[in-house]
Design brief:
2 copies of one chain form a homodimer.
Chain A: E1 2-3, H1 4-10, H2 15-23, E2 31-32, E3 38-40, H3 42-56, H4 61-72, H5 79-113, H6 126-131
Chain B binds a DNA duplex through helix 2.
Chain lengths: 134, 134
DNA sequence: TTTGACCTTTGACCAAACTCCAAGGTTTAT
DNA sequence: ATAAACCTTGGAGTTTGGTCAAAGGTCAAA
């Protein structure tokens, strides 16, 4: 069982952030010490990792909370419902990936076309690079 | 030349958002009518599309402003500098894409493994799905 | 010429996701 | 036994990115 400071330090977040997650129903410590200190266990840590990864790929805390609640109560859901929700998220992620890929390809083409020398970048327009390709 | 309402409507944003972008140095209309109405031209629209696309792939307005300023003053930059900046952005985008891909693959595997039937989803854990694969 | 749909500005307000502060209790090392 | 480094709560403040409202000016159609 870890105290809040240890968990925060290991994931490079503030203790305040963990308290914020608790307050907003995302991650409650599984216990408290006699003196009232929050105590987190391995399962809490798994949940935290999930939260941080999901946040990293652009989900809002509200969306993450939804996923966590589905997961926590999955015994009372039907497989087909969970599958549908997960497949929706997959579609959402793929849309995001496609957007990112287009953006990257455009910038990559600009970088490739740019001589990279010491002369003026007059013709290296970032706006133009992102304009043409749909 | 379009007025603020027309441009806003075409990009499904609020007129207030365009005024906000102007106030924060992202997009100023290229002119004003006699009566003081903002007038946007084709180049402003290109810039707006850039802003919306960049925002769509997760850049903050501050980062977008930076790119716009580099673009606007590129005549006074060296090719190598612009190329370096653009290549940095490409790396950033690729990191994001890799994260997204991992997340999607994990969820996809859960969806694939899930029977999708009417029985309890006890064994379809979203947290578990995202846990193992690094 | 007046009604309705536009536009202007200033300034307040909002939600999300933290982040900090104050006042105090706990633990641990010396 | 006392200082340093933790922890508690409650509440206030911050940043980002808008969004709304008030009070008024403009313009086109009937």
């Amino acid at each position: 069982m870890y105290r809040i400071g240890e968990l925060a330090q290991r994931y490079e977040i503030k203790t305040d952030t963990l308290r914020y997650y608790e307050k907003h129903g995302l991650l409650a410590p599984s216990g408290r010490s006699d003196s009232g200190y929050r105590l987190y266990d391995e399962a809490d840590e798994v949940k935290l990792r999930f939260i941080l990864r999901a946040k990293g790929v652009g989900f809002t805390l509200a969306q993450i909370q939804e996923l966590l609640m589905i997961d926590a109560s999955r015994a009372s859901w039907a497989c087909q419902d969970v599958k549908a929700i997960v497949e929706n998220k997959v579609v959402e992620l793929e849309r995001k990936m496609a957007e990112l890929k287009q953006f990257r390809d455009s910038l990559q083409q600009l970088a490739d076309a740019c001589c990279g020398g010491p002369e003026s970048a007059e013709h290296c327009s970032i706006l133009d690079a992102l304009e043409v390709r749909s």
